[in-house]
């Protein structure tokens, strides 16, 4: 009898562990709507992508979205209901083409500035033709004569 109770308890715990609500395993429809709503827990993610464990906002919001979808509300109606309850700050508009292009243009502009900087300061500047350098120091002239004499001996 004791063994049956333990088996039954283990079975109930296993079933409870496998049971998942709409917030723990959201459907594609719930995720689609949740991507348009900003989580209000302070993480700046969407309701669908909030990474906080046991988030106090996204979990109930996903369950509410699932209930609203089961009633037959459209995505726009659900988003409008959340905007009405939490204000316009909850709405996450999908990024426009401008939002996708700006990072790439910024990186390209930065690389161009670096290339121009390196090109300007890396390139050796040619010296103006000023002819042979004349040394006026008599001590250096002595060494110059000695060098020329030793060079002549080598030839």
Characterise the protein shown here.
By secondary structure, the protein is mostly helical. The chain has six helices and no strands. The longest helix has 26 residues, at 97-122.
Which key phrases capture this entry?
155 residues, mainly alpha, Helicase, Ruva Protein, domain 3, 6 helices, 0% strand, elongated
Mean pLDDT: 81
Dominant shape: elongated
| Order of H and E elements | HHHHHH
Radius of gyration: 38 Å
CATH class descriptor name of the domain at 23-90: Mainly Alpha
Largest sheet descriptor: none
Relative strand content: under 5%
How far apart are the first and last residues' alpha carbons, in Å?
Answer: 115 Å
The count of β-strands is: 0
Task: Determine the CATH topology of the domain at 23-90.
Answer: Helicase, Ruva Protein, domain 3
Q: Architecture of the domain at 23-90, CATH level 2?
A: Orthogonal Bundle
Which structural class is indicated by helix and strand composition? Answer: mainly alpha
What ranges have pLDDT less than 50 throughout 5 or more consecutive residues?
18-23
The amount of helix comes to 55-70%
Quick take:
This protein is mostly helical and 155 residues long. It is 60% helix and 0% strand.
Outline the secondary-structure elements.
Elements: H1 2-18, H2 28-34, H3 58-71, H4 75-86, H5 97-122, H6 138-154
Helix pairs in contact: 2-3
């Amino acid at each position: 009898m004791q063994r049956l109770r333990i088996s039954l308890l283990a079975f109930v715990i296993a079933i409870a562990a496998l049971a998942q609500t709409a917030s723990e395993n959201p459907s594609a429809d719930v995720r689609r709507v949740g991507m348009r709503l900003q989580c209000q827990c302070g993480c700046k993610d969407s309701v669908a992508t909030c990474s906080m464990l046991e988030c106090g906002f996204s979990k109930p919001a996903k369950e509410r979205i699932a209930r609203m979808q089961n009633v037959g509300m459209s995505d726009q109606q659900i988003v409008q209901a959340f905007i009405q309850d939490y204000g316009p700050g909850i709405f996450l508009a999908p990024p426009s083409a401008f939002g996708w292009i700006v990072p790439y243009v910024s990186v390209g502009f930065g690389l161009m500035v670096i290339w121009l900087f390196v090109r300007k300061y890396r390139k050796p500047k040619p010296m103006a033709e000023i002819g042979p350098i004349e040394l006026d120091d008599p001590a250096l002239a002595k060494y110059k004569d000695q060098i020329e004499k030793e060079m002549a001996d080598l030839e």
